[in-house]
Design goal:
heterodimer; A: alpha/beta; Rossmann fold; 3 domains; 7-stranded parallel sheet; 20 strands; B: alpha/beta; 3-stranded mixed sheet
């Protein structure tokens, strides 16, 4: 954990006496921050008020400094309790009162010790190993009968994100998503981050991968070349997509069309509507996209670049898929689990032109991962930007323009 | 009838230094101290109509004379002080004994928290002020407030020369508040301003605050205070108070004056 924290209780006539104000001022002036977790104000003059305050500081030393300063004003460190565990009653079923996670860093108290929960992700449960003193998130479907699951709020603390150190668009994110907002400085900041992350990734840095989750509109709109370039240049390490993006990308390579439209001429070609089916059929005959690329059948494009650059690709299927292509995971829960496995190490996520994959990926990401959501429909970035994270940026623009400008910012010649 | 608990200064002396006023080298003129104490008693009894309850002095407990720190009496209940310094902790048993013998129910709390009685708890009938940081611990006030269903506004004492609340603040029976604002931090000063109307706030000048002008005993319209505080006397007279200056400089050597030498034991006197 990057921050130290402690919960304190302040009670008495703390409002009119300005004792609460004094304690909060002290916390701030000494370099800490606070959350007023719960404040109960007395209804009559005789009634006392009660405040539960989470005090945070950048270091343990600062925290204890602050605690020492506020204790004379009546602040009492709350006696923490261990988290309350209950065994899962059946496979795939949490105990009734299970603690539902957020996408924020979380700690649970086991045997009087705060333990960091591994695998930060929203809407999951927390299972603990008392012997090893470990805790991790667990999806509902994966829980096994008898697993010890954290219940209620006792002994659980959620640590809000600190503002990022970089003074870029992620640090000053505005929650409004608007098509009218100029995009160029946002894209320039994203490019700057990606350049840094690529250097870090090459140096073996943690959390240095860039994840792109995208829909087939990338191909239709003409963003294929830019995305291919970004992958070939080593700016992207993980790709989440569905059957369609891969199919149309390879259709473009084999037939020069995307869903039957000639990509360069911009008109429908005779019998073009079947091109993507023929593409899928061809790959199915070969057995895998990897073999298709390595054997030279698929020569260029996004999938070829992924195979050649060693990009981790997770293709999740849907009920409207044709084929599907070999490698598309048609079991949704298995697809979700595979995507989840690919999340650790991701330091930036680009969610481009896909409601389905953007929302699914957004749900899997910890709030600490900066996220860019690009869509021509404002509702998708709005939904994603609304996740209570400092580090989510929404852009209302088309996928090809975004990818093109991003690649240009990173040195691609138009 | 207003009753005050007092203790004759038979053994009053400066035998240790636990506040900024005390200097062991500053020898108490015992005879003078006894005369001053009796003069105060005379004013309280004769001029102010107070009934005095006298505690028996104890050899070796020079500060037992400052009965304001015995504890607080609320109705027939009493909370005995828990002194911060070991030098005065020896007084606790004697004060407790007096309260018990006088028929008070002794109130105790689970937690062992420093609290120096009426020296740090003063107030108006509707609400009280609690002084903390120098001697009493702020955590005592929520307990007292709960027990006696009274609002207690804690005020931090920031100047070591005013180590008890009654050194720098004195509520008067007409609703006025005699006080020395710089003894409190800005939060405390604001809290006082919020509570007490401007016309009722009587701010004492520093020179007189240092003579413990605020360490006054107020009974009805009568106020007994240390002599040598002309501005304070004027402030009080303008408000219609009958002022009784008393020479008490021998007790100032120990950091105490009129109020410190008394404890209101009939209910909770303002």
């Amino acid at each position: 954990m990057t921050q130290a924290q402690e919960t304190i209780i302040l009670r008495g006539h703390i409002i009119d006496s300005l004792i609460l104000a004094k304690v909060l001022d002290l916390i701030l002036t000494m370099g800490g921050s606070f959350d007023l977790d719960h404040v109960e104000i007395g209804r009559t003059r005789e009634d006392q008020s009660h405040a539960r305050i989470v005090v945070r500081a950048p270091s343990l030393a600062t925290l204890s400094h602050i605690l020492r300063a506020i204790q004379p004003h009546g602040a009492v460190v709350e006696r923490d309790s261990d988290c309350v565990l209950q065994a899962a009653p059946a496979d795939g079923v949490f105990p009734d009162e299970f603690h539902s996670t957020t996408h924020l860093p979380t700690e649970v108290r086991l045997n009087e010790t705060w333990v960091e929960v591994q695998g930060v992700e929203m809407d999951l449960g927390i299972t603990v190993d008392n012997q090893r003193m470990t805790a991790r998130t667990v999806p509902m479907a994966d829980v096994r009968q008898g697993d010890l699951i954290v219940t209620g709020q006792a002994g659980v603390r959620v640590i809000p994100l600190q503002r990022p150190r970089e003074r870029d668009v992620f640090a000053f994110m505005e929650s409004t998503v608007s098509a009218e907002r100029p995009h160029s400085h946002v894209i320039a900041d994203i490019a700057r981050r990606m350049r840094t992350l690529r250097d870090e990734f090459r140096a073996g840095g943690a959390r240095s991968k860039v994840l792109l989750a995208g829909g087939p509109a990338i191909i239709h709109a003409g963003g294929r070349d830019a995305l291919t370039w970004l992958i070939e240049e080593g700016f992207i390490q993980v790709l989440f997509c569905g059957n369609a993006l891969a199919a149309h990308d390879m259709e473009a390579d084999l037939y020069g069309t995307s869903l039957g439209y000639a990509l360069t001429a911009g008109h429908a070609v005779p019998h073009g509507h079947a091109h993507h089916l023929r593409t899928i059929n061809r790959i199915r005959a070969i057995g895998s996209i990897r073999v298709a690329v390595e054997s030279g059948v698929i020569k260029s494009g996004i999938m070829a670049a992924c195979v050649r650059s060693g990009v981790r690709v997770v293709m999740a299927g849907t009920i409207r898929d044709d084929g599907p292509l070999p490698g598309v995971i048609t079991d949704s829960m298995r697809a979700q689990a595979t995507m989840r496995e690919a999340i650790p190490g991701v330091g930036l996520a680009l969610l481009v032109a896909s409601t389905l994959h953007a929302v699914a990926t957004g749900n899997l990401l910890p709030a600490s991962v900066p996220t860019v959501c690009v869509d021509i429909n404002a509702s998708v970035p709005t939904k994603l930007a609304d996740r209570g994270s400092f580090q989510a940026v929404g852009l209302v623009m088309d996928a090809a323009s975004f990818l093109g400008e991003l690649a240009r910012n990173l040195g691609r010649r138009a | 009838m207003n009753r005050l608990l007092v203790c004759p200064p038979d053994y009053f002396a400066i035998e240790y230094e636990i506040n900024l006023w005390m200097r062991r080298s500053n020898i108490v003129d015992h005879e003078r101290a006894v005369t001053q104490w009796h003069r105060l008693m005379e004013v309280l009894e004769r001029d102010m109509g107070v009934r005095l309850e006298c505690m028996r002095p104890v050899p070796g407990l020079p500060d037992l004379v400052f009965t304001a720190n015995a504890g607080v009496a609320v109705g027939r209940q009493a909370v005995v002080s828990r002194f911060r310094y070991a030098e005065r902790q020896r007084e606790e048993a004697h004060f407790e004994h007096w309260f018990r013998a006088a028929g008070y129910e002794i109130v105790t709390f689970d937690q062992d928290i420093f609290f120096e009685g009426a020296g740090d708890l003063l107030g108006f009938p509707e609400y009280w002020f609690g002084g903390y940081r120098q001697r009493s611990d702020i955590r005592m006030f929520p307990l007292l407030s709960e027990r006696f269903t009274r609002e207690i506004i804690p005020l931090e004492l920031i100047d070591g020369r005013f180590y008890h609340l009654d050194n720098c603040l004195c509520p008067l029976s007409g609703g006025e508040l005699l006080y020395y604002p710089p003894a409190f931090d800005s939060y405390g000063q604001s809290a006082i301003r919020e509570r007490v109307d401007e016309g009722l706030r009587l701010a004492v000048p520093e020179a007189e605050a240092l003579k413990f002008a605020c360490n006054a005993v107020c009974v009805g319209a009568h106020v007994a205070l240390p002599e040598g505080c002309p501005t304070t006397m004027e402030l009080l007279q303008e408000r219609g108070c009958q002022v009784h200056p008393v020479p008490l400089d021998e007790f100032m050597k120990s950091g105490g004056s009129a109020k410190c030498l008394t404890l209101a034991i009939d209910g909770f006197l303002p």
